[in-house]
């Protein structure tokens, strides 16, 4: 005995993107084929042509009158679309931001050490976010923090370009540096 309480088969999302074969409701369609002029034919003729070639009739532009369709291997078409999207995603560059923290009273040796790290980060292609963190009453030394960050930017002039000059945000004074384009 059959169980009639089961949920109906859910369409996969790929098939929801395009109407194929019997799902196309128009009586006439504009058939587009490679190397030929588009022609308006009945849906039955188009389905017969697709079946003859053992391919699918796929609706490309549903909003036009009559709808535009193409005869193709639908699974291969979906596969190629997914592959192209994957390639585009792989080509996208991800922006990495490295942070360097200073205190308003940072010593010269520590400063030089952090400059060397920042140069390495910029040569790798990462952005550098350098900031002076003011703790407690050190906020009265805002000018020292700004001078420190400007000196930092000056040291990195050959490796990077300033995106944002020193700017106070709460207890942090921040500067952003982009790597130079090669």
Throw out a few tags for this protein.
single chain, 182 residues, alpha/beta, Translation Initiation Factor IF3, 2 domains, 4-stranded mixed sheet, 35% helix
CATH architecture of the largest domain, by name, is: 2-Layer Sandwich
Arithmetic mean pLDDT: 81
Q: Globular, elongated, flat, extended or rod-shaped: what is the shape? A: rod-shaped
How many domains comprise the coordinates? 2
CATH homologous superfamily of the largest domain, by name? Translation initiation factor 3 (IF-3), C-terminal domain
Describe what you observe in this structure.
- The relative contact order is 0.10.
- The protein folds into 2 domains: 13-89, Roll (Ubiquitin-like (UB roll)), CATH 3.10.20.80; 97-179, 2-Layer Sandwich (Translation Initiation Factor IF3), CATH 3.30.110.
- It contains 5 helices and 8 strands; from the N terminus they run H-E-E-H-E-E-H-E-H-E-H-E-E.
- Strands 2-1-4-3 form a 4-stranded mixed beta sheet.
- With 182 residues, it is an alpha/beta fold.
- Helix 4 links the parallel strand 5 and strand 6.
- It has helices at 13-17, 43-52, 74-91, 108-124, 142-155, and strands at residues 28-32, 39-42, 56-61, 68-72, 97-102, 127-133, 160-169, 172-179.
């Amino acid at each position: 005995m059959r169980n009639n309480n089961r949920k109906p088969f859910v369409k996969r999302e790929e098939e929801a993107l395009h109407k194929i074969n019997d799902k196309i409701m128009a009586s006439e369609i504009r058939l587009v084929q490679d190397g030929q002029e588009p022609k308006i034919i009945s849906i039955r003729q188009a389905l017969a042509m697709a079946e003859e070639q053992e391919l699918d009739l796929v609706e490309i532009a549903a909003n036009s009158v009559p709808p535009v369709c193409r005869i193709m291997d639908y699974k291969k078409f979906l596969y190629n679309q997914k592959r192209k999207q994957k390639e585009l995603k792989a080509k996208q560059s991800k922006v990495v931001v490295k942070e360097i923290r200073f205190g308003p009273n940072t010593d010269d040796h520590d400063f030089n050490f952090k400059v060397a790290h920042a140069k390495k980060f910029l040569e790798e292609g990462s952005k550098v976010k350098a900031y002076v963190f003011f703790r407690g009453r050190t906020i009265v030394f805002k000018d020292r923090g700004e001078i420190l960050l400007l000196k930092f930017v000056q040291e990195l002039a050959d490796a990077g370009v300033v995106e944002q000059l020193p700017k106070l945000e709460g207890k942090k004074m921040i500067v952003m540096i982009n790597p130079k384009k090669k």
